[in-house]
Amino acid sequence: MSLSAEHCRDTSGDRGGGGGFNGALIHQRTLIRGLIIWVTLLTLGLAASISLHFIPKESPAPSKQQGSETTSNNVYPGKKIDLMTFTPNWENTDVELLQWNTVEERFIKGEGQLTVTQGGAYFLYLQVTLDSRKKENHTITVQTQKQNVILKGYINGSNLSSGFLATGIYLDDDDTFNVTCKPKAKIQNSHIETYMGVIKLG
């Protein structure tokens, strides 16, 4: 039994077609692998390029001359504050006129009636603390001879036992001032609870 020439051509044609399809598939896989490798290398290169932008560059060390100029420009010439402080000078009894000890006498002198020896602008601050809480209100007053009342505060014995006052004022030479508490009361004579200070501004 013999095969016809046409049958042989058909059979060989089918084999050739199958071989061409497999070759195209292998070629396509090779191209995909190459593309993946190329994309990977490109990504690594891009990542390395970006990381170079975040590496801090060391600035050159300043010369000695530049360092000395910077130091001299940043130095703030400090100004000495002209301050006088006063501590309580009374017994543990009811008082109305508060007496003071002068820590260092410079531009104000005295005890109960304080005298200004140098006229000028001043900042005065004062804290008064009652020895015990009482129901009645107490009025703390700072009064000068020439300007009358310059500070006034109220201590409500039922709620508060301390009062803080402060003001800026110009005081004339030889002017006097005092601190009073009305009605009279027991006032703490500890320098951390009751105190006064005066700063000379100019």
TrEMBL record:
Pfam families per record: TNF
Keyword field: Membrane, Transmembrane, Transmembrane helix
Domain THD: 109-149
InterPro entries (UniProt xref): TNF_dom, TNFSF18, Tumour_necrosis_fac-like_dom
Gene3D superfamilies, alphabetized: 2.60.120.40
GO cellular component, one term: membrane
Superkingdom of this protein's organism: Eukaryota
GO MF annotation: an example: tumor necrosis factor receptor binding
GO biological process, one term: tumor necrosis factor-mediated signaling pathway
Transmembrane regions: 35-55
Keyword Transmembrane helix: yes
Family: Belongs to the tumor necrosis factor family.
PANTHER family per UniProt: TUMOR NECROSIS FACTOR LIGAND SUPERFAMILY MEMBER 18
The protein's name in its UniProt record: Tumor necrosis factor ligand superfamily member 18
Gene that encodes the chain: tnfsf18
